[in-house]
Design brief:
By secondary structure, the chain is an alpha/beta fold. The chain is built from eight helices and ten strands. It has a seven-stranded mixed β-sheet with strand order 3-2-1-7-8-10-9. A three-stranded mixed β-sheet has the order 4-6-5. The longest helix has 12 residues. The protein is globular, with a radius of gyration of 18 Å.
């Protein structure tokens, strides 16, 4: 019996599964980072810093700039990033225009959105339900890009903005040519009212010169098993 199966047998009474880490999605992602020479990641919708910590764990040693508008999540993000000298954080959202806006705050924090949530989302994940609202600052990538990116850096843009993807891309129209790769959360079913779904996101990014290189499974309905979101990873050839 190999070590993994032995551990599974020991902990099976409490129904914890053991999986190989890093999994195939993460292995492929870091391979793509290395192949395209990515040395700067713009982490848009950072929440508590989960994405940045994960890419550090799988070997990314470049610079990270995280953007998170929620005050509660940002406090945790500050603690997560404080010892990492290559990790810069900002307390505002990114969108298609500079403004002050109201964001819906979810119970689990990471489902918070500037858009209204559909019943399909709440039914699939009850802890995603909105609990309050918060006033936040919104800027555009066109506006802040030159402040956070050096000319020689090879940039990867990660978007996890809960239905606000189209708005962020519109606000980045002038600088998308300077971005080498994009990871973007794509909904297969409308989870936020008015959000752009996966087919249209793929077509939009192709119009900007990006090609789909990888898909990673995301949010699913735990009862039916229906996949609701995937992460698309795109690169400019």
């Amino acid at each position: 019996m190999n070590l993994t199966n032995l551990i599974r047998k020991i902990i099976n009474p409490i129904k914890i599964d053991v999986v190989r880490y890093p999994n195939s999605d993460l292995t492929r992602r870091i391979k793509l980072f290395k192949y395209f020479g990515i040395n700067k990641v713009l982490d848009v919708g950072a929440n508590k810093g989960q994405y940045a910590k994960l890419i550090r764990k799988i070997g990314f040693k470049g610079n990270i700039v995280s953007f998170e508008p929620l005050s509660e999540a940002y406090k945790i993000l500050e603690k997560s990033s404080i010892k990492d000298k290559k990790w810069e954080i900002h307390n505002f959202a990114l969108g298609d225009k500079e403004e002050t806006s109201i964001i819906n705050v979810s119970e689990n924090l990471f489902s918070s959105s500037l858009l209204d949530m559909t019943s399909s989302h709440v039914e699939s994940a009850p802890t995603s339900n909105y609990k309050s609202t918060e006033k936040i600052s919104v800027k555009t990538l066109n506006q802040v890009f030159n402040d956070v990116v050096d000319e020689k850096e090879v940039v990867f843009l990660k978007l996890d903005v809960q239905g606000f993807e189209e708005n962020v891309l519109k606000g980045a129209s002038n600088i998308l040519s300077k971005i080498k790769g994009i990871q973007i959360e794509m909904s297969l079913l409308e989870l936020y009212e008015g959000e752009m779904l996966y087919r249209d996101i793929i077509n939009l990014l192709e119009s900007y010169g990006f090609e789909l290189f990888s898909l990673e499974n995301g949010f699913q309905n735990k009862d039916s098993g229906r996949l609701l979101q995937v992460d698309g990873i795109f690169f400019r050839n």
